[in-house]
Amino acid sequence: MIDLTQDENASPNCISSVESKPTASVDVVEEIDIKVWTLGLPNCGNTCFVNSILQVLRYTPDFLNSLHSLLLVHHQLSKLAKEDETKELVFFRHLHLLYSAMKRKEALMRINADKDYSAFLLKPVKLVISSLREVSLLFEEGEQHDAHELLITTINAFHTACHNLKKRFKNDENDNDNKEFSSSIDPETGPSTICDALTNQDVKKQIFTIRRRKTKSILLDSSVIENLNLGFEGKILNVIQCLECEKRLSREEVFTNLELNIPETVSCEDSVDLRECLSQTTILSGENKYFCEECQHHNEARMSSEVVKLPPILLLHFNWSRNSQEANNAEKSKIKLIIPRSFGTSENSEVFCCSSDENYKLFAIVLHIGRSTEGGHYVSFIKDASQHIVEPDNEQKFMRPKLKPGSQFSAEPVNCCTTEEISNFKTIDAATRWLLFDDNVVSPVCIDEDSETFPYFNYLSITASPCMIFYHKT
């Protein structure tokens, strides 16, 4: 049984619940039998919510490639025109430094397996947390925070960084064109005829072509930046239907995660399949009645959501809190969630209204341990990729993931922030070994290869609740 104990650097609010653990399971791998070549992250004081998200992002398909590409685009734009880093870019630069440090220390672990290298990550982790607080004032030092808020903040910060780089690219492009074009015209006479003007236009095109040739090996065009994304975005159609006149109003929106709630019909001690939570509708009644413009008065209405464009990474967020009668206390539900290791969108066609059936595979879970949402501890399960990789020798070079044609830029493979395991992470089928990340402790967990679900409740306290579940499209 994996023992979750309190980290010496954590405050009393960030504790692991060890009460009422289930009996030992045959699926738990004895740690002495399998060596884990993956580093955990030190707790800097109530930072378990940060550690759990950073570990999941590291193994999210294409995340490291997008992170590396973002910083490389910024580096190349800085060569054309110097500009101060935004707070978002500082955050991602520190995050990249952390992942690079983890990669280097994990390589050393294979040489000196008895040494604990996680302590060497304390400084880069603190840099990430410090720059995170510059991005958002929500994350006050020493306080426990919601891991979901951190993930959404990171995704939004990436969008902001890409948007700012896109503006810089266009501004630099226009400024350089104007300077080079104006330098080819006599400042006193200017273009004297239409023919001269046409000639100057040709000159402008030639200058633009020459300048593009100088940088095309790295920056193809603005689509390089536009296509940088983390893969969480999909499109959803929100529908409200009046139950009297049956008129439907719909609005399409971009989403980064699906917010799910346990159905009210499920009692506190029951279990519920995740797929049952996907297909939910809400009836607006009582004080929440919907004002129908067709009927010109408030009516009961049915509110539902339909996914019309699927994201490469499907993030499901669960809200486990229930309002307790006690003031300032948010008691969690004790319902056991059944998590399928894979599912097809055709199984929930009323929610996933896409034309084709898509399959998703589970690769990570972030869990909150504790009876109340106002305290507790965060851990994460992540699919272990190392079991499918040949043991590397000390001379092996780690490569970046292959770049998608037309969406990123050409660059030589680098021995930087990723590993072979992470590069091949998405292609692994039916992995039976997982890793449990609990701050600086990383423990192997093995599940039955015939199991169709992930039994997190066999390894953690009964107060452990999945709050974020990550699937990738196959």
UniProtKB/TrEMBL annotation:
<keyword id="KW-0833">Ubl conjugation pathway</keyword>
<dbReference type="GO" id="GO:0004843">
    <property type="term" value="F:cysteine-type deubiquitinase activity"/>
</dbReference>
<keyword id="KW-0788">Thiol protease</keyword>
<dbReference type="GO" id="GO:0005829">
    <property type="term" value="C:cytosol"/>
</dbReference>
<feature type="domain" description="USP">
    <location>
        <begin position="39"/>
        <end position="474"/>
    </location>
</feature>
<dbReference type="InterPro" id="IPR018200">
    <property type="entry name" value="USP_CS"/>
</dbReference>
<dbReference type="GO" id="GO:0006508">
    <property type="term" value="P:proteolysis"/>
</dbReference>
<dbReference type="GO" id="GO:0016579">
    <property type="term" value="P:protein deubiquitination"/>
</dbReference>
<keyword id="KW-0645">Protease</keyword>
<dbReference type="InterPro" id="IPR028889">
    <property type="entry name" value="USP"/>
</dbReference>
<comment type="similarity">
    <text>Belongs to the peptidase C19 family.</text>
</comment>
<dbReference type="InterPro" id="IPR050164">
    <property type="entry name" value="Peptidase_C19"/>
</dbReference>
<protein>
    <recommendedName>
        <fullName>Ubiquitin carboxyl-terminal hydrolase</fullName>
        <ecNumber>3.4.19.12</ecNumber>
    </recommendedName>
</protein>
<dbReference type="Pfam" id="PF00443">
    <property type="entry name" value="UCH"/>
</dbReference>
<dbReference type="InterPro" id="IPR038765">
    <property type="entry name" value="Papain-like_cys_pep_sf"/>
</dbReference>
<dbReference type="GO" id="GO:0005634">
    <property type="term" value="C:nucleus"/>
</dbReference>
<dbReference type="InterPro" id="IPR001394">
    <property type="entry name" value="Peptidase_C19_UCH"/>
</dbReference>
<keyword id="KW-0378">Hydrolase</keyword>
